[in-house]
Amino acid sequence: MAIRRKTSHYLEAVKLLRKPEHDRRGATAEEKRVLARWSGWGSVPTVFLDGPDPDEPVHRPGGE
Q1: How far is CA 49 from CA 5, 17, 30, 56, 60, in A?
Q2: What average pLDDT does the chain have?
C-alpha cells in the first residue's frame, strides 16, 4: 500500500477513535473495520520528517 494511502487510513482511524471514547461506548462494526487498518506509525515513519525523504520512492520521478 502506498505511504500516502496508509497515512490517510491511519489518520482516519485516529480521528475515528476519539468518537467512541468521547461517547464512552464501544466501537460499532463499521468503526472497528476502519480501526483495524491501524498498525502503528512504524510503517510510515516519513510522515514525521521535516521535509521529503529523497530515498523514499514517492519522491522520485514517477512516484505515487
Answers
A1: 17, 24, 32, 11, 16
A2: 77
